[in-house]
Amino acid sequence: xxxxxxxxxxxxxxxxxxxxxxxxxxxxxxxxxxxxxxxxxxxxxxxxxxxxxxxxxxxxxxxxxxxxxxxxxxxxxxxxxxxxxxxxxxxxxxxxxxxxxxxxxxxxxxxxxxxxxxxxxxxxxxxxxxxxxxxxxxxxxxxxxxxxxxxxxxxxxxxxxxxxxxxxxxxxxxxxxxxxxxxxxxxxxxxxxxxxxxxxxxxxxxxxxxxxxxxxxxxxxxxxxxxxxxxxxxxxxxxxxxxxxxxxxxxxxxxxxxxxxxxxxxxxxxxxxxxxxxxxxxxxxxxxxxxxxxxxxxxxxxxxxxxxxxxxxxxxxxxxxxxxx
Length: 325
Prior knowledge:
This protein is an alpha+beta fold. Helices cover 21% and strands 37% of the residues. It contains 7 helices and 16 strands. The protein has helices spanning 31-36, 58-71, 156-162, 164-171, 176-180, 211-216, 302-324, and strands at residues 2-6, 11-25, 40-50, 77-91, 95-109, 112-114, 125-128, 141-144, 148-151, 197-201, 222-227, 240-248, 251-259, 264-269, 271-275, 282-286. The strands form 3 sheets. Strands 1, 2, 3, 4, 5, 10, 11, 12, 13 and 14 form a 10-stranded mixed β-sheet that branches. The radius of gyration is 23 Å and the shape is elongated.
């Protein structure tokens, strides 16, 4: 999950990326082996639209995301979206691999709770950050060229598109929950923002690659929050795994699913300070950094360079120690 927020214009671009991998192990020659062995099924497409895009179904996605925002108690409203869906099934004699990836890029507004363009550089804008932890539970039916209609949030629907009888058997099996739970689950990003890694970049160089940032903001000061590196402060993140044994087509099948550990970054135009006093996560964003924030060579805060220097020193000591053993 990545996002670029421009409080001055109350506009943001989000990148919600959901990935799930499922593997099946079954006896060679079994009905499921005969169905999948040697098959490679791939469904991939990209769709764009707004709330009026009912022909390709993007309006369904926008509605589902907006409902998820409300359930996360976020005021954010999605106005348009680009969705890329990739689903692949590879079958072999005694196993099959199924991979799913959904990348949703919504344009978001109304995350500024108060403030906006008329605020001074010292007063600041109050920015909502609860949108980061949404879980999309409503079905999203899209209509893509050369694919037709397909519901993208649940893994079972790719199988239903390519192997309808097998999908019915899986749905009625003991492993059904692995295939019917929404892929678009970003609940792991609910970790308090105070534990995310913080980097302040007065130069704005770390977002030069973002066309959205360039177009929407003239600001050079950027606050960057990152999650997923694993540390004493934020904890350790591991992939989410689930196993099940099911009888499918009269054969015993071992099912294993994996969702990668979370990794995310939030870039905010301005100097941001997290506030969790009200029970939710917000940021107070000013145009300029406080006077007591020290910068070192290259315009990076001195404390950030000290931390990075300490990390590099520790790595060097570790390498020397290993080399002498």
